[in-house]
Amino acid sequence: MTDAKPKILIIEDDLDLAEMLNAYFCVQGYEVFTVNWGEDGVRSCQTMHPDIVVLDIRLPDIDGYEVAHRLRGDRRSADIPIIFLTEKRDRADRLQGLELGGDDYITKPFDVQELQLRVRNSLKRFNQGSLTNPVTGLPDGALVDERLADILNEEGMTILLIAIENLDAFRESYGFVASDDVLRAISLMIVATLRQAGEPSDFLGHLSGTDLILIMSPSNTAAFSEQLRAQLEQSIDYFYPIKDRELAENQPNRLGTRIAELSPDHGRYTGIEEIKTELFRLKI
To answer: What's the pLDDT at 97?
Structure first.
């Protein structure tokens, strides 16, 4: 966002509540738009491009889950933060909203100041999204590009590619929450291994949503790789439900990891895109 007022779209069929939220967020410095129907909410997102959506789940036409599904399926609205607003409290309802890409969830009755803080925090996370991965919190995008650019002029550094294989297939079977848990757990294992076999100057970040890179000294790569491989091999089966573990062992699309090494010799590459291309080739 720029210095302009952040735009918030409120999709709420309770007219009194919608009016109250409109007045409150206007006072807080937001440009506020309100609609009372799900279909109107979808159209409004695609035309006025809000910075954030507060979305009631119970609507008179299509429910909030369907609204979120459509927003996430359209490139014009796929990245807009969504806060679900609902009377439902069950864990299953909350998980359904998060699986559809909701950024937060608040139940009625609620403290309007709490909602305002959740809106503020979601916007802050969104504005930082290009710098860190929303699931792992590790550097992403521009931060990774900057570090790769640095090693073009450095000598004696090695890049390890740590690729998570078949995570998309796992997500299809077990949902977004479970796949995010896998990504988060693997990143934490890498960080823990770095504490034991790495150095403070090591850099860990995302090459893509399922691929991580680690830039470190060549003297540490062998010990680190061996230790990490052992931990990952012991852990993969536990990401599956107990009833599926034996079956998953023999499936071609079973979760897995691949660790590959690239030594970008000084002067070999002229730009970071060449390095990225070479790293992606290591996955094949």
So the answer is: 66
